[in-house]
C-alpha cells in the first residue's frame, strides 16, 4: 500500500493492481445508470480489475463491455446472492481468475411484493427479501474478508456495503424501501460494524455507504411502483426532503464516494456509516 500522501506528484485514488468485486454491478434497463454499474466503471477508470457480479449475466456483461470499451479490465460472474453457495463461488472465481481480492462492494437490494395498506406480505417474499438484502451481504462480507486476509501489507482490503437512509428514517420520499428492504438495510448496517471489528487486526476495513434519494433507474422505478408516483413526480417528492438546492445525486456520485473508500486514502476509516443523502436525514 502506498502511504506517501505528502508527495505532490502522487496519483490520488489509484486502484492500480487492485481487484475489486462489485456485487450488483449490472442493472435493470432504463435511462439512468445504477449505483453498482457506476461504481464498477469508476473503479476500473482508476486502475482496478473489476469483477462484475449480477444475477443477470447479460446485465453484468453489459457493464464489463462498457469498461473494456474504455480499455479497462473486467469480467462478469453470474450469481444469486440469496444462495450461500453462489456467494462463495463469487470469491472462489475471483481468486482463481485474479489471484486476490482487494475490494468488495455489496450493491444489491430488492423490494419484494408488499401490501403497504395492510402492512403485510407473504412469508416467502419476506424471506427472499431478507436473504438478498441481508444474508447475502453477510456471506459476501465473510468470504471477501477471508480472501483479503491472504493479502500482504498494512491495509489488506476494503469492504463497502451500500445501505439506505430507509434503515434510519421511515417517511414517504425518504423510505424507498418497505419491509424487508428497510429491515435488511438495518441488518446490513450492523453486519458492516461486525465485519470491521472482526477483521480489523487483519488490516481489513469495512464501511457502510448510506444512500439517500439517488437518481438511478432502480430508485425511480421503485418510487413509481411503491408510491404510485408518475415519472415527473419523483423529483418533486424528493425535493421536499433533500436539503441541497442542486437536487438529487446521480449514481456517479455514489461511485466516487465508493472510490474513496476503496482507495488507500481511506486507510484509517472503518466501521463507519457515511451518509450520501443531500442532508435528507438532518434533524428538522
UniProtKB/TrEMBL annotation:
Q: Which GO terms describe its biological process?
A: fatty acid biosynthetic process
Record InterPro entries: NAD(P)-bd_dom_sf, SDR_fam
Do you know which Gene3D superfamilies this protein is assigned to? NAD(P)-binding Rossmann-like Domain (3.40.50.720)
GO MF entries: oxidoreductase activity, acting on the CH-OH group of donors, NAD or NADP as acceptor; quinone binding
Note one Pfam family from the annotation. Answer: adh_short_C2
Q: Which key words are in the record? A: Oxidoreductase
Q: Which family does it belong to?
A: Belongs to the short-chain dehydrogenases/reductases (SDR) family.
- What name does the UniProt record give this protein? SDR family oxidoreductase
Amino acid at each position: 500500500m502506498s502511504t506517501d500522501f505528502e508527495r505532490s506528484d502522487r496519483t490520488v485514488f489509484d486502484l492500480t493492481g487492485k481487484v475489486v468485486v462489485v456485487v450488483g454491478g449490472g442493472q435493470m434497463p432504463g435511462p439512468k445508470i445504477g449505483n453498482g454499474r457506476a461504481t464498477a466503471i469508476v473503479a476500473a477508470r482508476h486502475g482496478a480489475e473489476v469483477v462484475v457480479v449480477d444475477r443477470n449475466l447479460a446485465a453484468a456483461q453489459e457493464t464489463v463491455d462498457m469498461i473494456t470499451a474504455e480499455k479497462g479490465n473486467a469480467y462478469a460472474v453470474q450469481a444469486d446472492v440469496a444462495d450461500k453457495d453462489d456467494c462463495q463461488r463469487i470469491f472462489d472465481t475471483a481468486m482463481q481468475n485474479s489471484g486476490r481480492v482487494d475490494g468488495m462492494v455489496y450493491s444489491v437490494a430488492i423490494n419484494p411484493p408488499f401490501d403497504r395498506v395492510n402492512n403485510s406480505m407473504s412469508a416467502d417474499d419476506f424471506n427472499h427479501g431478507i436473504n438478498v438484502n441481508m444474508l447475502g451481504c453477510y456471506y459476501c462480507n465473510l468470504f471477501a474478508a477471508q480472501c483479503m486476509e491472504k493479502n500482504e501489507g498494512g491495509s489488506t482490503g476494503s469492504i463497502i456495503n451500500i445501505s439506505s437512509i430507509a434503515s434510519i428514517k421511515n417517511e414517504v420520499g425518504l423510505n424507498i424501501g418497505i419491509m424487508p428492504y428497510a429491515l435488511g438495510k438495518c441488518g446490513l448496517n450492523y453486519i458492516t460494524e461486525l465485519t470491521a471489528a472482526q477483521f480489523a487486526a487483519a488490516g481489513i476495513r469495512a464501511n457502510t455507504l448510506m444512500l439517500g434519494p439517488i437518481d438511478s433507474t432502480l430508485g425511480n422505478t421503485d418510487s413509481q411502483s411503491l408510491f404510485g408516483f408518475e415519472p415527473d413526480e419523483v423529483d418533486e417528492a424528493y425535493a421536499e426532503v433533500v436539503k441541497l438546492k442542486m437536487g438529487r445525486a446521480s449514481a456517479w456520485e455514489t461511485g466516487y464516494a465508493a472510490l474513496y473508500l476503496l482507495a488507500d486514502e481511506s486507510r484509517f476509516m472503518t466501521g463507519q456509516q457515511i451518509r450520501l443523502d443531500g442532508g435528507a436525514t438532518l434533524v428538522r
